[in-house]
Give the backbone structure.
Amino acid sequence: MEIGHSLNSCTTELSAVEIGSLFGRSDASGQQLLVILKNIAEWLECMYNNTDVVLGGVIYLHDISSDRFSGTARRNLEMFHNLCGDAALDKVILGTTKWKRKTEEINCSHEDEMKKVHWKPLIKKGSTVCRFLDSHESAKSFIDIILRRMAIDTALQIQVEMAVHHKSVPETKAGKGLRVHQILELQAQIIRLEATIAASSDVETESKLVESRKRMQGLKKEVQDAKVPLPRRIRSLIGLL
């Protein structure tokens, strides 16, 4: 498995890494979110259908030195939660990284906020918070937690949705949640562009608006073709009511 050390992502597909009887997932950053979700979901479905493979746990990594928990971070955490489902959250490790970038005081303050606010619903359902301190011992502590929970035979929500209920990725809770975020973000972008043009029109902004409207039409067609159930408010927003 290739491990990147530059700012550019080198991950193009998922791969399994065997650690004793444990299989882990490589990171999949650098691709569009829907493609990432599809790759992960299909890989997890194959794991579910393979009786020789046990999903020991899932690790979610967060840069503790980040000054803000951005909208993108919230969206990704929500998608992760929807992918796992409440029943499997005791298999989740919420890992924090980059502890050397800021002072201990700042990092601990960030960690405390993550625990009390953003990660609170996951922790209440059994997820464990763990610090990665750039050492082999620290990495091993993550694996030790997963190995201790190997006996917990709970599938992730998206595995059950796809392998048992035969849903497509867009029909899963994670897929629908991501689609809603896409529509809302694109609609907000269109509104901002329209306001900019109303104040002072220019060719570049008008071009961006045309492109954004085309993307919205594309999303509308995808929703129609896939027959994905979405909240009434969202369907109204894209003109499907």
Observations:
- Residues 53 and 211 are 44 Å apart (CA to CA).
- The mean pLDDT is 83.
